[in-house]
């Protein structure tokens, strides 16, 4: 089996369509499912998948192996393109529930990429944030809205969105640092 980095290199350096085909076969299912979980539309998901591989073929998206794995890069490309597709179609309005009842991480595309324990821990911790912070986290990270779009959607000042998002991230970061410190101490003892 050819290494994925070698496949990518052959695509970029020699325009090897066979390498692109192999790479596509390896990641088609994963990327399509991710795109579908975000767009909830088969046609949009197929377009996202095609766009991701066309960007690679036309070298409009450049992978740097020093920054991480090719699979992670492909997932990021796919996620960003799927969010762009949602924005383009203005489906965000119909997907957001005005009677927000909290975040369910098991419905998120990233859920498949996290282990169950971590996902449950994140979900538990997010529920400790106040409702306003939960809404902003949901709209920013899981619906792909910009901070300005969130301000417009919730009819609040942009500065309020920025500060609530920053505080939410600080609270979550602080909690997870404590958890990691505790685990490290337990492993040492």
Can you tell me about this structure?
There is one protein chain. The protein has 189 residues and is mainly α. The protein has 2 domains: 4-92, Orthogonal Bundle (Rna Polymerase Sigma Factor, Chain: A), CATH 1.10.1740.10; 97-188, Orthogonal Bundle (Arc Repressor Mutant, subunit A), CATH 1.10.10.10. Helix content is 72%, strand content 0%. The protein is built from 9 helices and no strands. It has helices spanning 4-14, 17-39, 42-57, 70-89, 92-95, 116-127, 131-142, 147-154, 158-188. Helix 2 (17-39) packs across helix 4 (70-89) and helix 8 crosses helix 9 (158-188). The longest helix is centred in the C-terminal third of the chain and has 31 residues, at 158-188. It is globular, with a radius of gyration of 19 Å. The termini are far apart.
N/C terminus separation: 42 Å
Order of helices and strands: HHHHHHHHH
Main sheet attributes: strand count, strand direction, barrel closure: none
CATH architecture verdict of the largest domain: Orthogonal Bundle
Structure class = mainly alpha
Instruction: Give the radius of gyration.
Output: 19 Å
CATH superfamily of the largest domain: Winged helix-like DNA-binding domain superfamily/Winged helix DNA-binding domain
């Amino acid at each position: 089996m050819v290494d994925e980095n070698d496949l990518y290199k052959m695509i970029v350096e020699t325009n090897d369509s066979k390498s692109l085909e192999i790479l596509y076969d390896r990641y088609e299912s994963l990327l399509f499912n991710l795109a579908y979980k975000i767009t909830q539309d088969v046609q949009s998901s197929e377009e996202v998948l095609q766009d991701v591989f066309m960007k690679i073929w036309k070298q409009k998206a450049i992978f740097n192996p020093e920054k991480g794995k090719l699979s992670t890069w492909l997932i990021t490309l796919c996620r960003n393109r799927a969010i762009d597709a949602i924005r383009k179609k203005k489906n965000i309005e119909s997907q957001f529930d005005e009677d927000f009842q909290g975040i369910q991480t098991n419905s998120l595309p990233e859920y498949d990429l996290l282990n169950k324990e971590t996902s449950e821990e994140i979900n538990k911790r997010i529920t400790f944030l106040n409702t306003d912070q939960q809404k902003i986290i949901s709209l920013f990270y899981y619906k792909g809205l910009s901070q300005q779009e969130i301000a417009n959607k919730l009819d609040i000042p942009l500065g309020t969105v920025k500060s609530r998002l920053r505080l939410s991230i600080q609270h979550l970061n602080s909690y997870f640092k404590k958890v990691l410190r505790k685990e490290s101490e337990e492993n040492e003892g």
